Known about the structure:
Blueprint: H1 2-14, H2 17-23, H3 59-67, H4 83-121, H5 126-154
Family: Belongs to the UPF0389 family.
Transmembrane segments: 97-116
GO cellular component, one term: membrane
Amino acid sequence: xxxxxxxxxxxxxxxxxxxxxxxxxxxxxxxxxxxxxxxxxxxxxxxxxxxxxxxxxxxxxxxxxxxxxxxxxxxxxxxxxxxxxxxxxxxxxxxxxxxxxxxxxxxxxxxxxxxxxxxxxxxxxxxxxxxxxxxxxxxxxxxxxxxxxxxxxxx
Length: 155
């Protein structure tokens, strides 16, 4: 079957489509006529041919539609909503969340700068704290060495 199709396509490429289709029918090499399918059982109701495209929003989707400002209350939200409306609401919430995170980051940076300036006024810099810690360690080491030397002389 693929051989026949490739010949048909090759024929159209070479400009011989009309001659090839006259030789072979559009059904290929099949001689048997296709019979129509039997009608479906009358017990099942026929499915509608056209269905309104939409999406049944979940509770979270309803909250997003309200937060995005599309609707004022949950009662105003229809039973089915278009995909574009849900997507637009999600994008608007995503942008608002990004703005909130940016504002929180800038606020945290300003708080850190303010706290650093207050610590500098109290002379609590990292350098001063480091020097104090190392001086304390040197004192402890000197005390340990003196205690070890005294215990070594006593023996």
